Every structure is written in C-alpha cells, then in structure tokens.
Amino acid sequence: MNHPEQKSVAVINAHAPFSSPKGKDALDIALIFGSYEQDIALFFQGDGVYQLTDKQDPALIQQKDYLKTFSAFEFYDIEQVYVCGRSLKERQLPGQFHIDNVTVLEPAQFAKKLADFQVIFRF
C-alpha cells in the first residue's frame, strides 16, 4: 500500500542485456526502490525484452550474469513486471521467460499501464 509521500515508480528496460550497463543499472534501481517498499514496476520493450529470455550464457562473452538476480524480485516485493507483446513479436520471441509472473501487454495496454506511474526511469 502506498503512503501519501511515496511515489509509484516505473523502470523501462529498452536495451539488450549485455550490450551496455543499462540493464544492470535498471535492475539496481528497481532493487533499491523495492528494498524501501516503494510501488515499483519493471517494463520491458524493444531490445529490452531480451533481458527476459531464457538460457543466456554471458560467460561466453566474459560478462557477469546479472539476469539471475531477477529471481530475487519476490524478495524485494517487485511484483509488477510487464513486457511489450509487439516487441516480442518483432523479435520472434516466445512468451517464455526466465522468471515467473510476467504480464505481456499489447502497445496500447503497455502505454496505459505505464501512464499509471508518477516517476519513470528509462534505460
């Protein structure tokens, strides 16, 4: 439940997981807000949907696997995870993810849900 002084926060992930530090930065922000029991949601669109795909091995490109940390969302009370259905279709990705409780939304629903948040961070 939100307290009057709390703001609802959305974090948009729009970049592939290991092409830049943006995905890790987005995760860190979400975990920080989650640890303070803020109303936090994660949104994935564009190449950001690749952060949710299963069976990635970042060790092959000498990267640390920050995606494993997504499994800690429940511990941080991060329960709202949304992915753009059009982004999945454009990349011919199935709706199977390495975490549970991901909601696939079509673009209009995605935009409407995003508009519900007071603060938006885009990575």
TrEMBL record:
Q: Which sequence ranges form a coiled-coil region, renumbered to this chain? A: none
Q: Report the InterPro entries cross-referenced here.
A: DsrEFH-like, Sulphur_relay_DsrE/F-like, Sulphur_relay_TusC/DsrF
- Could you tell me which NCBIfam families the record lists for this protein? PRK00211.1, sulf_tusC_dsrF
Q: What family does this chain come from, according to its entry?
A: Belongs to the DsrF/TusC family.
**Do you know which Gene3D superfamilies this protein is assigned to?**
DsrEFH-like
Pfam families annotated for this entry? DsrE
UniProt protein name: Sulfurtransferase complex subunit TusC
The organism of origin for this protein: Thalassomonas viridans
